[in-house]
Amino acid sequence: MEKMRDPDSTDKAAPSMKEPLPPPPPVTRVPVVALPPSLDYVPWSTDLCDCFSDLKRCCISFWCPCVTFGQISEIVDRGASSCGLNGVIYLLIAWVTGCACCYSFFYRLKMRKQYRIDGNAAEDFILHCLCESCALTQEYRELQNRGFNPSLGWFENAKRQNHGVAMAPMPPVAPIVEDGMKR
């Protein structure tokens, strides 16, 4: 009859036996990029209701949110779209549907992803629906705290950050595609 073995007991008969190492991962042509551990998500640099610290920007965001939104969107898009174009689109959506917050909400998501800011889509959507001017003012202040002056636009900010040295245009990021066809 076979003796039952206690799972908590250690087998002292074979102390030199080690578990085999797992096989190495398969070799692919797709590069693996690990994010450095220092790139954790961070909170917003200012609170939502700090909009009264800059009363001028708060008033502009309340009475003419298309201006603040256009300035934010140009920086978030890194110059790919203009302040004027996005401001006009915002104004048209507000005029036709009365719900421009749906458009500005997507830029808040994009900004949070770009700068690794804490939050989620549901919070962002509710925030833009309930207090659009506070949300826009917070985004504007966030860009200022990151060294941008949204009222100058992307290209002027890039020139100032590079001390007048001309920059080559940034190519769009293309997705990584494996070689060959697959069915």
From TrEMBL:
<keyword id="KW-1133">Transmembrane helix</keyword>
<dbReference type="InterPro" id="IPR006461">
    <property type="entry name" value="PLAC_motif_containing"/>
</dbReference>
<keyword id="KW-0472">Membrane</keyword>
<feature type="region of interest" description="Disordered">
    <location>
        <begin position="1"/>
        <end position="25"/>
    </location>
</feature>
<protein>
    <submittedName>
        <fullName>Uncharacterized protein</fullName>
    </submittedName>
</protein>
<keyword id="KW-0812">Transmembrane</keyword>
<feature type="transmembrane region" description="Helical">
    <location>
        <begin position="87"/>
        <end position="106"/>
    </location>
</feature>
<dbReference type="Pfam" id="PF04749">
    <property type="entry name" value="PLAC8"/>
</dbReference>
<feature type="compositionally biased region" description="Basic and acidic residues">
    <location>
        <begin position="1"/>
        <end position="11"/>
    </location>
</feature>
